[in-house]
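Explain the record.
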Amino acid sequence: MASTALPPVGIAGLGLYFPERVLTGQEIAARSGLPEFVVVEKMGIRKVHVAGPEDTITAMAARAAERALADAGLSAADLDLVLYHGSEYKDHIVWSAASKIQNLIGATHAYAFEMYALCAGAPIAFQAARNMMRLDRRLENVLLVSASRENDLIDFSNMRTRFMFNFGAGAGALIFRRGQLHNLVLESAARTDGSLADTVVMTPAAEGVALLPGEMGTLHGRLDVHNAEYMAERLGEVSLSRFVEVIREAVEESGYRLEDLRFLGITHMKRSFYLEILSAVGLTPEQSVYLEDYGHIQSVDQTLALSLGLRQGKIKPGDLIVLAGAGTGYTWSASAIRWG
């Protein structure tokens, strides 16, 4: 009788891409009128990358994907699936970035589709891809890729959106391999508070206001916040507990205790809240990375945090790590990984 045990899925390769142009915290302060110490120290933004005309979502994603393939020692022809889980602000609207990425990298044997959970998207995509691969023997190598340039959509004169002044541009990619026994992708968890669904939206330009030229075409509006007071009050009440809940659940569903956690890679946010989350899950800044030189790049943040943690020697073989994020909508998510 054939074994019914599901095969493991591990991370086989990692790749990143960032545009060369940067916007410093000092420049953001000057554009917004905020004091420099507020932007650099409190908001934790030393610099962010800014996309140029050639840095479309699919171009950046393809560059990150090619680097992940090289890291895994694979060719694009080895891929069975391309899963894009990045920004919906992409080359065109009502359009599949995944299929364009598949074509750009030459993954001719792979099919392609998209998932979208805003800035909570990475852990949710991890869970979906892992579960698909464990059940479908045809999915041996899967590319998960994300890109964002949503800083195009920010108006630095609009203080309702100041928590989004940290948006940057870039792309990240991971290769998941079926049957791999190291860098194991474990369980995930997510929570959603739909009462915040309508708080952050793309609003059209007001009548009589000139449309603004963007790098990917004319922008018909900007990101804005509706009912900002409720959003701030509600997130103040629940955000810390939701982060702790999803991190704890991902760890415990993977067969561990929160005390076993050795590293947290989490989306960029204001420095004080980042430190509060670390303390709440029993970690120190030496067991994490703060993305102050990149800002917030939607669901690229988790791949970036993993890369920086490895590069800085903060992730060691055998470590239990969690990659976590949160996105407007409002959803919190986390995935556990056993590294090494």
Q: What stands out?
A: DSSP finds eight helices and 15 strands in the chain. The two ends are 32 Å apart (CA to CA). Helices lie at 25-32, 36-42, 57-72, 97-105, 121-135, 228-253, 271-280, 301-311.
